Amino acid sequence: MAGSSSPSAVRVGVLFPDLLGTYGDGGNATVLTQRLHWRGIPTEVVTVAGGDIAPDSCDVYLVGGGEDGPQTQAARELIESRALHRAVDRGAAVLAVCAGMQILGHRFPDATGADRTGLGLLDCETVRVDRPRAVGELLTPTAGVTGPDGVHHDLGVLTGFENHAGRTVVGGGAQRLGAVEVGEGNGDGSEGVVVGRVVGTYLHGPVLARNPRLADLLLGWVVGPDALGPLDDHEVEALRADRVRAARAGELAPRRSWRDLLRRS
Ligand code: GLN
Asked: Largest CB tally within 10 Å, which of 45, 87, 173, 193?
């Protein structure tokens, strides 16, 4: 349905929620479908379990976060089927969160720390580093993306939480979503990786519930921006302001470990 005003349903592909569903990213599908429903645009959610063949016919795909072992299986299945490669070649949009982003890069570490080949849809690679796991609020104050059509989309503040061991090195063929103010993100002061209509991020939340502009960026790529009338987001904006304030105040920073506390007592 990319770029058309066709009344056919927007197909939202949710890839492997049984493998990559640890952090509640399945809520991103609810956000996309609800924001389309409010605008009178029909939707169809296609949920693909691990072991099932992913269709290449969806308009937008969602890949969530998960543990190192299941993410390796998800990568293997998508490399074998090449369904996501074909969909992206046709112009489908993709949102890949954390483990999802890592497997869409060129390589990522598996549960043993060994390098695994990724899908290569994002110009990045994820490595293990000798640093603590990144856990806590993640805030990117001035995010933005330039789409394949050259149009720049201001995403404003991106807010969410992160929980990952890997760090992601972004290549010259990719954009970043923005610079990190609170948290770790990619690990070099930036957050997110974007190539064409494929968006990777370390933000959970679910990210689209906390950041409706990012949801509308993906939907605009699918149905065309003119099909997306304004919505009343004042409630979510109030929640966002609260989360941003808390992240800046360090209220949601991870507590010190018990070992740290015992050491100091
Ligand atoms: N297993 C990956 C890591 O720890 C991704 C974690 C996640 O998806 N939140 O880096």
From this structure: 193
Residue 47 DSSP SS3: strand
Parent domain of 214: 10-264
Q: Which atom belonging to ligand 1 lies closest to the Cα atom of 166?
A: 10
Our count of domains for the chain comes to: 1
Looking at 41-184, which runs of residues are DSSP E strands?
43-48, 60-63, 93-97, 107-109, 115-117, 124-127, 134-146, 152-164, 167-170, 178-179
User: Among 163, 167, 203, which residue has the most ligand 1 atoms within 8 Å of its CB, making it the best to mutate?
Assistant: 163
Q: What is d(CA 132, CA 183) in angstroms, rounded to the nearest whole number? A: 12
Our answer on whether the CB atom of 71 is closer than 6 Å to any ligand 1 atom is yes
The per-residue pLDDT for range 103-132, each reduced to its tens digit, is 999 999 999 999 999 999 999 999 999 999
Give the residue numbers annotated as catalytic, written as ranges: 98, 204
- Residue 3, in any domain of the structure: no
Q: How far is the CA of 221 from the centre of ligand 1 (A)?
A: 27
